[in-house]
Amino acid sequence: DDRARTKVVFSGDLGQPARPVVRDPVAIEDADVLLVESTYGNRNHKSMAETVDELLDAVSETLSRGGNLIVPAFALGRTQDLLVLLGEQTLAGRLSELKVFVDSPLAAAATQATLRHANVLDAGTRDILRRALAGNLPMHLRFTESVDDSKALNRIRGGAIIIAASGMCDAGRVRHHLERNLPRSECGVLFTGFQAQGTLGRRLVDGARSAKLFGEEVPVRAKRFTLGGLSAHADRDALLGWLRRFRRAPKRTWTVHGEAETAVGFARAIEDELGWRASAAIRGDTLEL
């Protein structure tokens, strides 16, 4: 039965990473059916140098005004990326005496798990994370575990960087910090990853002047910042570069994990640039292999 021998390849977070935190992905050279993500199939990420400059601007501007910087971030991957970047910039002297709070038990566990598998990290990342956790950086780092510890952060009026989940602001402890800090013009919110349609994070990025939190409308006076190069999802050029390493075209290729317009556009790009047979798989579609 040909169907029993069909090779299906799922492309997840493939392509070039935002920074060399982990080893480069292994290339795949052939597949009968390919499902390739299209999250950023319509654009490219900013360079790491530009991303670091954006981070420095967000931190420096917010702290200089005496406010807090709230950072909605995914507990696995994004939080560790941020800690490494902040640690690197303090070592380089571009930031100093930061007070960083990671308000996520899952992020704390994920950071420890990351270091238990240090063999998959590059040497610089291992060193920064270990020094940060040991308190050997010009940066105060604290992981909050209990609910009481989390609530205590709401008493900090300024000078804190608070990293908390969820990354798109639809759940988790970050919503409490947004409730307290969004109405304050001296504060800032730093978005570090993709904000899907329909999420609170997307509405804030798009310029919403108020946010509904815990049943109440909260005015948004805090300044909003975004980072353009930290996503673990490959951008358009990286995805196409990964696809070009196939020795032969898959029999069928579907673009997935992207907003409908982006998925359709990236499928068209695959057809135009590679000459493959590609279509977008939209939520609810049934695909016959």
Task: List the SSEs and their pairings.
Layout: E1 8-11, E2 33-37, H1 48-64, E3 69-72, H2 78-91, E4 98-103, H3 105-116, H4 123-134, E5 139-143, H5 147-152, E6 160-164, H6 174-181, E7 188-191, H7 200-205, E8 210-213, E9 216-219, E10 223-226, H8 236-243, E11 252-256, H9 260-274, E12 278-280
Parallel strand pairs: 1-2, 2-11, 3-6, 3-7, 4-5, 4-6, 7-10, 11-12
Antiparallel strand pairs: 8-9
Helix pairs in contact: 2-4
Based on DSSP secondary structure assignment, what is the total number of beta strands? 12
Pattern of helices and strands: EEHEHEHHEHEHEHEEEHEHE
Output mean pLDDT: 89
Structural class: alpha/beta
Question: What can you see in these coordinates?
Answer:
The protein is globular, with a radius of gyration of 21 Å. The longest helix has 17 residues, at 48-64. The protein has helices spanning 48-64, 78-91, 105-116, 123-134, 147-152, 174-181, 200-205, 236-243, 260-274, and strands at residues 8-11, 33-37, 69-72, 98-103, 139-143, 160-164, 188-191, 210-213, 216-219, 223-226, 252-256, 278-280. The strands form 3 sheets. It has a 6-stranded parallel sheet, sandwiched between helices. The chain has a 4-stranded parallel sheet with strand order 1-2-11-12, covered by helices on one side. The chain has 9 helices and 12 strands. The protein has 289 residues and is of the alpha/beta class.
Structure at a glance:
This protein has helices spanning 48-64, 78-91, 105-116, 123-134, 147-152, 174-181, 200-205, 236-243, 260-274, and strands at residues 8-11, 33-37, 69-72, 98-103, 139-143, 160-164, 188-191, 210-213, 216-219, 223-226, 252-256, 278-280. The protein has 289 residues and is an alpha/beta fold.
